Amino acid sequence: MDIPLIYFSSSNNTAYVAKLIALGLEKRGLKPDLVRIEDFKAGRYDLADADVIGIGAPIYGGFAEPIKDWVKDFDFNGKKVFLFSTAGMVHFGSTSEMIKIVEKNNGKVIGGFEMTFQGCMDGIIYLKEQAQKYPLKKKELERAIEFGCKITDNAESGDGYFDSTYKHYLGATSLAIIKVIKLFVLKLIKVFVYVIDSRKCIACMKCEEICPSGAIQVNRKKPIINHGRCVSCFRCFKECPSKALNLRFIGNRPYYRGPWQLEGYIDPEKIKSNMEFNPETTD
Ligand SMILES: Cc1cc2nc3c(=O)[nH]c(=O)nc-3n(C[C@H](O)[C@H](O)[C@H](O)COP(=O)(O)O)c2cc1C
Fold this sequence. Notes:
Rossmann fold; 6-stranded parallel beta sheet; two-stranded antiparallel sheet; 9 helices; 18% strand; binds flavin mononucleotide
């Protein structure tokens, strides 16, 4: 059985976790396909034959918009879905929120996995210079491989598997409260981000091309950002060849690009998890 893992990842944490989950799936003899949402949206992957789909995103107040927008519009037509996400601090009940959306669109949610990459939030919004000093915990990473193993046993039986540290299954009232809090938090994040030096722009169109949410249009050599659509993933900022997109507020500090920059980065292939599975003995 091929299992697509469709994910969005800006600084590669979610891509990393997708890889770990894929290792777990492989241990069970399954064939995971790692698919970036951009490739999926560009029509380079077809979900028609998939019975089970993994969906992953970083938490930007909830599942990041490039994934959320797609899930909101997609008819899962009875397919089984598991969700995974990475956050720098708090998941904001995002899995609960996504479960509701997937189920509304005829999907059956069979599991959830959330991982916190301590310190990433600091790194991404530049609040501290020492953001790159958080060691990854091997045990934590093994948890993702374990999830990959267990989710498939349960996919066969139809039972759900929610990772043991999954604590965020929230009811309607809590979700409503969180929604209000999120409105303020996301506004704060965006205050840090939007400063563009359009004099340096060479109208190469790169930012427009890579923006995952279609928020940038270069018009008469000037990037115009639609703030409503922007998900602050910083890709334009990172990729701009003429450094026209700038974060003047905090200066030119090195940008956090992924877990390999962190002290203690462990190559996913080198993590040996103890999960040797025998479906007959696994409950
Ligand atoms: C625009 C933006 C919003 C974020 N919002 C949250 C948040 O609400 N809660 C949180 O814990 N982390 C938040 N983060 C941190 C990311 O969720 C975290 O670093 C994640 O692992 C990044 O995943 P990626 O490397 O796959 O892009 C945010 C990051 C960005 C860029």
